[in-house]
Amino acid sequence: MKKLITTVASLGLLVSTVLANVASDQKALINHFKTILPSVEFADYTNGVYAIDQNSRKQFEEILDGIPPYEEAVEKGGKEYLKFGLSKCSPLKDPAAARIKHPYFDEATQQVVTLEGTIKKCYQQQIGKKLDSKKGKIARISAWISDQAVGQKINVKVESAGAQEAYEKGKTFFYTKRGQFNMSCADCHVYNAGKKARADILSPVLGHTTHLPMYRTKWASMGTLHRRYDGCLKNMRAKPLKAQTETFRNMEFFHQAMSNGLEITADRYRK
Ligand code: HEC
């Protein structure tokens, strides 16, 4: 009996430390940003650099007030969602619910499942072909699906030992220095957020995943979160990784969890 009680007690402890990690990691980040960017409200982190710099915010708002360059693409994504039969796949049947559910840790495969991963799988089932992971159809379809969940809050759950391990791996990747410049993601998006790097202001990691997929002027097209990961790795002169590889999926799990409580937005534009 005593043994049972101790086992139950330590299990309880394990679960609560598992759950506490995401919340305490995020709290530490929120406190850090309160210190370095005291005028930014939590909800405004969805706007990335535009939450920080008033001049670029004005341009951003003008773009949103006109016909934003992603509008047509997102609409097309909605048509493609139907045309390719993705509404017939049960994980995507309710698009708003699908956006909120992903990314999640799948206990059966012990892998992080991303929204784009699920779209790719359904597309393959329905059409019998592979879908690119970074741009084109996948970015349009994923953006349209996310648009159905606008105003709902990101709520990534890390609830098992396996999920915890994936989360920790993703977090470690984010904080590890790499590449020719020996920098980590955190060097730019945590410690130096709000500062200038050449012509760019560095965005804070909080809110990073609320508006993806997005349209970037630099790309002149839409791209997924992993397309952006790839771009930042290149900027760091680090070894490139393929979109949807396990490393990126684990990082996304951590990265999205740090936006927990922030609203998904349809303002999918960055310069
Ligand atoms: C040398 C600095 C630097 C490093 C290191 C870096 N980035 Fe970036 N990143 C940028 C710049 C500059 C931008 C464009 C301006 C902005 O939004 O911050 C950007 C943009 C982004 C965005 C889009 C933000 C938005 O609001 O649309 C994401 C997501 C991102 N980076 C993730 C990462 C990840 C993940 C890593 C590590 C693999 C990383 N970055 C490493 C400089 C960096």
Automatic annotation (TrEMBL):
Localization per Swiss-Prot or TrEMBL: Periplasm
Binding site for substrate: 228
Domain of life where this protein originates: Bacteria
Cytochrome c domain boundaries: 97-154, 169-264
Any one GO molecular function term: oxidoreductase activity, acting on a sulfur group of donors, cytochrome as acceptor
Catalytic activity: S-sulfanyl-L-cysteinyl-[SoxY protein] + thiosulfate + 2 Fe(III)-[cytochrome c] = S-(2-sulfodisulfanyl)-L-cysteinyl-[SoxY protein] + 2 Fe(II)-[cytochrome c] + 2 H(+); L-cysteinyl-[SoxY protein] + thiosulfate + 2 Fe(III)-[cytochrome c] = S-sulfosulfanyl-L-cysteinyl-[SoxY protein] + 2 Fe(II)-[cytochrome c] + 2 H(+)
Entry keyword annotation includes Transport: yes
Residues annotated to bind heme c 2: 185, 188-189, 232
Predominant localisation class: periplasm
Record carries keyword Nucleotide-binding: no
Cofactor(s) the protein requires to work: heme
Catalytic residue positions: 232
GO annotation terms (biological process): sulfur oxidation
Annotated Pfam families: SoxA-TsdA_cyt-c (PF21342)
Chain positions recorded as heme c 1 binding sites: 122
Gene3D superfamilies, per database record: Cytochrome c-like domain
EC number(s) recorded for this UniProt protein: 2.8.5.2
Signal peptide start and end residues: 1-20
Family: Belongs to the SoxA family.
Oligomer and partners: Heterodimer of SoxA and SoxX.
NCBIfam families to which the protein is assigned, alphabetical: thiosulf_SoxA
Name used for this protein in its record: SoxAX cytochrome complex subunit A
Organism field: Ruthia magnifica subsp. Calyptogena magnifica
Lineage: Bacteria, Pseudomonadati, Pseudomonadota, Gammaproteobacteria, Candidatus Pseudothioglobaceae
